[in-house]
Amino acid sequence: MEDSNSLDFDYEAFFTLHLDLLCILDKAGNFLHINRAFEETLGYQIHDLYLQSTIDLIHPSDLSIIQKELEHLRYEQKSLIFTVRVRHKNGTYKYIEWSSQFMGKYIYASARDISEHKIRAIQLQNHYVQLSAILKNNKNFVLHLDANFNYTHYNHIVQEYFATVYGKDDFLGMPCFDGLTFMQPLQETCLVCMSHIGKVLQTEMEIINKDNTTTYILWDCIALYNDNTKVQEIQCIGLNITERKLAKIKEKQEQEKHVLSLNTPISELWEQILFLPLVGKLSASRAAHTLEAVLNKITTLQAKFLIIDISGILIINDEVATYILKLNKGVKLMGCACILVGISPHVAKVIIDLNIDINEIITTNHMQTALNIALKHCGYQLIKLSAK
Is there a contact between 25 and 54 (Cβ–Cβ < 8 Å)? Predict the structure, then answer.
């Protein structure tokens, strides 16, 4: 092998052809020798660079970095790697990564333009900061599960809400659904997701809190698969729809209340005499509403009698009889008396067969008789006028 010292190498050609920025500087940072890569990277002519120091090209905010590194080189004489912004001829700045070493009287340095990489890293960092802020302010529940339904990720909303459920604030790797019956809708949806590649499925979950309030969560779930078509992860995003759900429930209740009011037409037949026809099926909710409406009407009109017509009720059974007896009891507490009309032979037989005691209620099979009884007790009397 030939001794390298005996070879006639053209080191200047190597210096010129190198793609990186190569230079030799004095202790003050002035250029003594540079290669043509400086022209291509920074836009200056080589002879222009010889007239200025590296300090003149450094971004003002990075001057402390370059000064610190030059000082370090003078005393340590070790190779250093650092990044500073260097001014291009057009006035913009490029991120240049330097590797330098102090040898003898001079500083030998190589550098490369990492602007594209640096800008991308800054953009990624900014995106990360923005995403972190979004996730931090996100009010949705976010959780990821593996194929065995164990937690692989969750956000702060899940952590804060379920910490009291699990009794701890760190449940990575824990099974999500074990022993939690309220999570069953979400578990069933996740199971279905595993057989529907890439399909988003939705489910609603109801949670009874410790303070007996209810939280409603609307979940969107999707199963992600790996290259072997095996479930890699199940991602779930939950939206707290409690306010919207409660508003709908209230609206439905108002609608039902309105319908019930239409089905409970309480009219005033005469002064202090009310009439209530019961038609159709008497449900628990309707019975409760009827009682409330009747008692309010009695208070408002100072009624003394309530005539109840049951001829339109579809089914007479123990439950309906109990509702009527409760209605009678409530009316009596208000100082009013009930008269029951519309009792057909069939209804009378049912009452006897069911052994229902309605002795406390005045009964008659004719509306006219009931009205006469009420009028008489109120001090009125119907008189038939003779025809002239």
Answer: yes
CA dihedral over 294, 300, 303, 309, signed as positive or negative: negative
Q: 81-137, pLDDT tens digit by residue?
A: 889 999 999 999 999 999 988 888 888 999 999 999 988 888 888 877 776 666 666
Place of tokens 């210096």: 15
The pLDDT tens digits of the residues spanning 144-177 come to: 999 999 999 888 888 888 888 777 888 889 999 8
Residue 287 lies inside a defined structural domain of this protein: yes
Question: pLDDT tens digits for 244-259?
Answer: 999 888 888 777 766 6
Residue 314 three-state SS: coil
Q: Is the dihedral of CA 128, 130, 133, 139 positive or negative?
A: negative
CA 139 to each of CA 136, 152, 204, 306, 318: distance values in angstroms, whole numbers, following the listed order: 8, 20, 17, 55, 50
Which of 229, 296, 309 minimizes the C-alpha distance to 257? 296
Identify the domain containing residue 163 by its residue range: 138-245
Phi, psi dihedral angles at 310 (to 5 degrees): -105, 10
Question: 61 in a domain, yes or no?
Answer: yes
Q: 240 near 141, Cβ under 8 Å?
A: yes
Which of 245, 279, 311 marks a domain boundary?
245
User: Which DSSP category does 260 fall into?
Assistant: H
Identify the CA nearest to 294 among candidates 314, 311, 274. Answer: 274
Q: Domain with 55 in it: what CATH number?
A: 3.30.450.20
